[in-house]
């Protein structure tokens, strides 16, 4: 079966029309869709990295703030102890909390109830607020009228 010149021309014209259409449909269109998807993924990743940068800056700010709070908590506690002449009978221990921030443990030896009540009032009345989380009160071994006190303080 021999093809005529007219049929050969029609086949060539059909191929010239369909090959670019097939090339567009199966090569160019998928490549452009993939390029579009990659562009969206890049934008998503860029926004996520911006969020991570902002969170990192916020974390750094909060860490610096917690350091200054703990320093001011130590200074405030130290000044209160000096005010009531309890510095020589005290011991301060600074602990890190798991949720962030710091906690101060104040231990006092041989303190009477009047001194303790004044100190607690002054601690709770201070600005910025200092919170007493826990108080352990035990009688002193040397004198039954004096006490050993352990307080856990945080700044609020």
Structural notes for this entry:
The protein has a domain at 68-155: Ribosomal protein S6/Translation elongation factor EF1B (Alpha-Beta Plaits, 2-Layer Sandwich), CATH 3.30.70. Strands 1-2-4-3 form a 4-stranded antiparallel beta sheet. The protein starts with a helix and ends with a strand. With 156 residues, it is an alpha+beta fold. The chain has 2 helices and 4 strands. The mean pLDDT is 87. 8% of the residues are buried.
Write the layout of secondary structure elements.
Layout: H1 5-83, E1 90-96, E2 102-111, H2 113-124, E3 130-139, E4 147-155
Antiparallel strand pairs: 1-2, 2-4, 3-4
Q: Give the overall silhouette.
A: rod-shaped
The name of the CATH superfamily of the domain at 68-155 reads Ribosomal protein S6/Translation elongation factor EF1B
CATH domain class of the domain at 68-155: Alpha Beta
Are there runs of 5+ residues with pLDDT below 50, and where? none
What composes the largest sheet?
4 strands, antiparallel
What assembly state would you assign to the polypeptide chains in this entry? single chain
Record field, number of beta strands: 4
CATH architecture of the domain at 68-155: 2-Layer Sandwich
End-to-end distance = 97 Å
Under CATH, the topology of the domain at 68-155 can be stated as Alpha-Beta Plaits
Derived structural class: alpha+beta
Q: If you compute it from the alpha carbons, what radius of gyration comes out, rounded to the nearest whole angstrom?
A: 38 Å
**What letter string, H or E per element, gives the SSE order?**
HEEHEE
Q: Give the helix proportion (percent range).
A: 55-70%
Widest β-sheet, arrangement of strands: 1-2-4-3
**Tally the helices: what do you get?**
2
| Share in β-strands | 15-25%
Mean residue pLDDT: 87
């Amino acid at each position: 079966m021999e093809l005529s010149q007219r049929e050969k021309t029609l086949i060539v014209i059909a191929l010239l029309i369909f090959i670019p259409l097939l090339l567009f449909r199966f090569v160019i269109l998928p490549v452009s869709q993939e390029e579009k998807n990659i562009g969206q993924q890049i934008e998503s990743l860029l926004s996520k990295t911006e969020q991570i940068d902002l969170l990192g800056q916020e974390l750094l700010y909060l860490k610096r703030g917690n350091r200054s709070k703990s320093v001011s908590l130590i200074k405030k506690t130290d000044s209160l102890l000096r005010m009531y002449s309890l510095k020589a009978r005290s011991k301060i221990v600074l602990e890190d909390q798991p949720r962030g921030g710091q906690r101060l443990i104040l231990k006092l030896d041989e303190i009477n109830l009047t001194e303790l009540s004044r100190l607690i009032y002054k601690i709770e009345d201070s600005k910025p607020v200092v919170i007493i989380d826990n108080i352990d009160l035990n009688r002193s071994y040397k004198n039954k009228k004096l006490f050993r006190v352990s307080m856990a303080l945080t700044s609020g």
